[in-house]
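Q: Can I see a sequence and its folded structure?
A: Here is a first one.
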Amino acid sequence: GSCLSTQDDLRIRWQGFSDGESGISHYLVYVGLAPDDDSIVPATKFAKSTSDTVLAISSTLGGSIIITVVCENYAGLQSRVFTQVTIDTSPPRAGLVLDVDPETRGLVIDTDFQEHDLLKAVWDPFYDPECPIAHYDVALVEYHVDEMALKASAWSASHALLSMLLPAKLAPGIKYKILVRANTTAGLSTIAA
């Protein structure tokens, strides 16, 4: 199955149905908690020329739902397919993020001071109980205590690694932080520093 966030509309597409004898009359689409259940979205009839639809889903809905598509021919015979979709209701839980001096050769110790322009971001996997992490983004930011704000630079390209070397021109006397953003397959994200 796939994952959606609670903010998404449910786009349903189907294909591959055919009936060379009596022909396709129509389709029925419904959503429930089990196959052939329409407790979430009642059965909706679609013309035979239709192959997709968008359904609004409840923003409070979470967990797994089952989408049923039924194809009915002119003789009244039906074929059906089911698919499971997970509705993700919360962003992932953050892992521990460390900024590491890459010259420490194997030691993973959070760095507070260093004398060169390389930093390595290392983080524990983030976790989401409903949908998997699709990728991570990393940003190097200046941290200004007096402003109590982070000024983020551009996020790096997305990747699935749990560490990344960040070559940067670090200015003396400036405090930097590394931000890691985990993005789920449902499009939800969490940032940790």
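Q: Show me another, different protein.
A: A second, unrelated one:
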Amino acid sequence: LPLRDRKDEVGEVISSAMRHVTAASEVMADLTRIGSCPVGELPRHADVADALREVVRDDIGRAARHDVRVNVVAPQNAYEVVPIGALAVLMHALLGAAVNASPPGSEVVVTLSDSEEGHWTLTFDDAGHAVPVAARRGVLSRDFEAIATGRTAGVTLVAAMSIAANIRMPLEIDDAPSGGARMRLTIPKQNG
């Protein structure tokens, strides 16, 4: 049948195609950012809180396309000696994974807090499905099939784990209080 005779179906097909193109575009942007990660960069004085807010500003379009709100809880400043370029790429990957995992109309909560144990804690709580324990182990072993179970784009979590290991910042995946997943990054303090 000619397309003019199937008007309702055409709109659905076009809408579906646009969603797929947008998803592919987001994956390519993620891979490009990850591929350009400055993993050999030397640490320098930087404001981690400001860098976090900049990452959220950069990714607000993705959150809007997914109809997900991003709530940032962070101090005004968090000065530290860090490889800020690699840390920014890592924060983009974690925020992107959290937004992608969260259903429309939900909220991702990003928290940067000062710990008395000599580090900063950065958490990304999504509203999606919890990451199964087997998949959490899969992230550490880079098992893409285990990671994809019930969640989208596991490759960004694998990349995030690799970047975190490279810049020596432990990254753990737990259950979020909201029922989704929590990605917790520990940023060691150098400024004592």
